[in-house]
Amino acid sequence: MIIVSACLAGCECRYDGKSNEVPEIKKLVLENKAIALCPEELGGLSTPRIPCEIVKVNNEVKVIGRDKNDYTAQFTKGAEIFTNVAKALNCKTVILKANSPSCGYGKIYDGSFTGKYRKGNGFTAEKLFDLNISILNETNFNDFFKEESELQSD
């Protein structure tokens, strides 16, 4: 089973109450080939919610909102629940929202709320990486499925 970020499947669960719908990803869910989860909602955050980014505070990684409040506990809880679902379903592949403080993999916002990026992983992506789950995003998932399809046709 594949798990996808709910916003990519068309669920209006982004911080601003909108979605990042990708029709091909939504189709995977509608065809029961994937399930959609939002780690931020799983962690107890509302939709809409304050935008958050990952920062280092006194050598500690935290998720801080634009309102300067600490949301680390909610992001940690959401990552744990998401990861537990992935383990229960024996998930091998996820498609996560790029750059997100939960789902970003390899590149996330830099914590300045200016739209700039830095190397790093969101809280959920980091836990999934530790489980050796293949992490894709909305920009590269088609390449993965194309390669998998080519392997099956050989």
Automatic annotation (TrEMBL):
<protein>
    <submittedName>
        <fullName>Uncharacterized protein</fullName>
    </submittedName>
</protein>
<dbReference type="Pfam" id="PF04463">
    <property type="entry name" value="2-thiour_desulf"/>
</dbReference>
<dbReference type="InterPro" id="IPR007553">
    <property type="entry name" value="2-thiour_desulf"/>
</dbReference>
